[in-house]
Amino acid sequence: MVSEQTPDDGTSGVEAEGVASVEADAADRIDADATIDLLRELVRIPSPFFEEAEIADYIHDWLDARGLDPEYHRVSEPDITGFEGDNVVARVEGTDPDAPTVLLNGHMDTVQHVEGWTEDPTSGRIEDGKLYGQGACDMKGGLAAILVAFEALAAGDYRGDVVLTAVVDEEGPFGLGTDALIRDGVVDDCDIAVVTEPAPMITQGDIENPALVLGARGRFLYEITVTGTAAHGSQPERGVNAALDAARLAAAIDEMDLGRHPKLGSGSTCLLSIEGGGEPLSVPDRCTLEIDRHVVPGETAVSVLADARRVADRLDLDSEVDISLRETPDPDMYFQPYVTDETHPLVAPFFESVRTRRGVDPDVGYFSSIGDFNHLGGRAGIPTVIAGPDGANVHGTGEYVLVDEVVETARLVADATRRIIE
């Protein structure tokens, strides 16, 4: 849990002159009760991916009521998903166009509500410092944190800009909301991105808050069709069993050599589905596979396809094998791996803020899985820091977030951002 004591950040007592005292108070402008009230309201709005209209309107109105000039940013993907929706974007402009611009990014959607909850999954109930609800940890806690941090920063007078983006479809198949920000140039001038996903939850190795996550593996999805020859099940030698060959291929891909990275660790494969056969007493003549492939820097769409095809060629199966990657709305729209250098000058303020506010060095980790941070840190090439509240049961029943950590995340983001843009 986070102490509610006001830390000594070197700003107590009489400040020198000018706006220094105003700027130093960015984190202290954040009210804990108001932050938790906002979080509860966000959790009480159901927002499974592709169903974010209500929460987008709520966030737009929340920002508008505070004079923060929000805008809707249209997201359209007609070909594969048919999705139409809106991000919410706002900007606080600084006084110096040459000063850094900080992006605060969070997603509004959750997974589809899972079965098994013993209470309303949008209750927002608080007990023992935990706020419960689907998406409470992933990532409405982080979303509430950047909203109140943005409001606190808007009350200051700084050289640099702050851009807030509340996005759709992070939990869906493609990350359409953040992809649209990149394609439409919304984040072109951003020098560093802050994503308040629950940092300690899915990392390489065990870390605890306060923590900074500075990279993530990427991901591809193999779609494989194995075509054999049907025959009577009592005479399997007269056919070519596609299901059996598919199983052999899946096992071989599971054992193939994968890339390694000193920060991100090893890549991985995971068989997600295998479907085929089912006709009574018939040799299956067709089987399909979906296989997840998490990758590290240096592994590309071309190399990933070549790896799987090389495995299939070595098996010399009697079935025909077609291997492709999942169709995406655009060829470059995949989750690219990235690593942010912890010595980057715009990352240093996050370390300084943790040390000053918490009196410790932050844990440093690297995400095992994927998210909008891959689009920002990988495709857009923006140095990206993940820092967010901890909790448990993400994507499952009984999901909760630690409310003290939501407040501390907001104060960390406000303080570190202030250090960058002052």
TrEMBL record:
Stored Pfam families: M20_dimer, Peptidase_M20
Signal listed as a keyword: no
Transmembrane residue ranges: none
Residue numbers spanned by region Disordered: 1-22
Cofactor(s) this protein cannot do without: Zn(2+)
This protein's record includes keyword Ligase: no
GO molecular function list: hydrolase activity; metal ion binding
InterPro entries: ArgE/DapE_CS, Bact_exopeptidase_dim_dom, Peptidase_M20, Peptidase_M20_dimer, Peptidase_M20A
Keywords: Hydrolase, Metal-binding, Zinc
Domain Peptidase M20 dimerisation: 215-315
SUPFAM superfamilies assigned: Bacterial exopeptidase dimerisation domain (SSF55031), Zn-dependent exopeptidases (SSF53187)
Family affiliation: Belongs to the peptidase M20A family.
The protein's name in its UniProt record: Peptidase M20
